[in-house]
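Let us work through a complete example step by step.
Step 1: write down the sequence.
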Amino acid sequence: MPSLEFGKIVQRARNAFRGGITKNISFRIQQLNNLYRMLEENEKQFNLAVAEDLGKPHQEAALYEVEFILNDIRCMKQNIRSWAKPISAEKNFITILDETFVQPEPYGVVLVLGAWNYPIQLSFCPMVGAITAGNSCILKPSELAPKCAELMKTLVPKYLDPECYHVITGGPEETAELLKEEFDYIFYTGSTRVGQIVREAANKHLTPVTLELGGKSPVYIDNSVNLDVACKRLLWGKCINAGQTCVAPDYLMCSRELQEKLIPAMKQTLKEYYGEDPKSSPDFGRILNKKHLNRLLSLMKKGTIVIGGDHDESTNYIAPTVITNVQPTDPIMQEEIFGPIFPIITVESPEDAIDIINSKDKPLTLNVYSKKNSVVRKFLDNTSSGSVCVNDSIVNLSIDALPFGGVGKSGLGAYHGKYSFDTFSHKKAVLVRNYAMIGEKLGEARYPPYSPTKEKYLRKLLKRRPNLLPRHVDYIAVFFGGFLAAVILKVILHFAGVKYF
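Step 2: predict the structure and record it as tokens.
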């Protein structure tokens, strides 16, 4: 699509936003309902498209693509009216009789750049947040999941307002051209390298961004855990979508003694999950393409393969693989794996594991498997990551009350649930003053001519309220003022001989 056409689409979305229709709460709810209906009525098509693009098992597509978004929409619809309300703000003494609040308002035209590994979820979840906050939106799905992208392009204009919401398909060239346009907010999910390109493009227009990136998400496990349960949770997180999940456990750290127990337990768990041959299991996915397959195979050249290692280039298959005798300097420890390969590094203590984590970029998530609160606390207090999941993997993403996002090179900003609404909303500060004489008297010392006395007086008024005063002292003052007025009125009526009850 020529860049001129991109400009026309962006202008249509901007015109629709300026017309005010997306700000209407009832309109937003209607669009969310339409999106919900689109997903429900076409779920089989979406699941089929995901399977064709990624070889993803049906249950993974149904639950972690479609149902994930449906749940997000339910959350938004339930809370949109309360989230969109102005939020009362604290006052100082000068404005004690005035109104102060924070008004959430939409940014305008939002660009969402989706990712290929969860092509439906990572396209529509940000879009749901943008709609809920009152923005118009342009969605650019990943070209690496072409069936999903075309399906979204076909269905979205049939269900959503075609002036407010648009889907643009294409490859890197189209994305580069699209990023030349001016947006009011950009939301990107993908690699750190491309995230930097998106950030640079946004900077030209001073456009705010959210970057959901990735990195090497570490796992530490000690001997206090239930090993069978830990292996089930750990390997589920590692093998879902064939390891192509941004928060999948990337590498594992444990003591040498525990490693000897862990390997047979992992073998048993993988056998329970996928049988003797994961390649023939309908529940194990495939690598996206041969380029990604070859990259993963190159990472397996160092260390000792103790589980798996098989691959089939004709079907982009790599078996769930565990590698030991891995050194922190090995190639597999220098980049995000994004596949079903699990390197194990032996450490002497939690402190050693923490040192390894802190020697690398801040991860998107950290997994700590331990029943010892003191061990968990060490990792919480001495590492930095986008999130932490204790005694499980990935499940924290299912809780919409928790923000999902990275820190440092693993991302910028967060979303899910209320955090999605906040991400796509500008927080506008508002002060509404009145013309009551008492309020004017309180602040008239600000006017010239100035004097030391006025300055001293204003310093006192501008100080924050001391903690011993109630935050809502103005309401309390009004209450007592009203009470005092009622008493005075009662006395007047009494002496006037008027019966008042």
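Step 3: interpret the result. The first strand starts at residue 87 and ends at 88.
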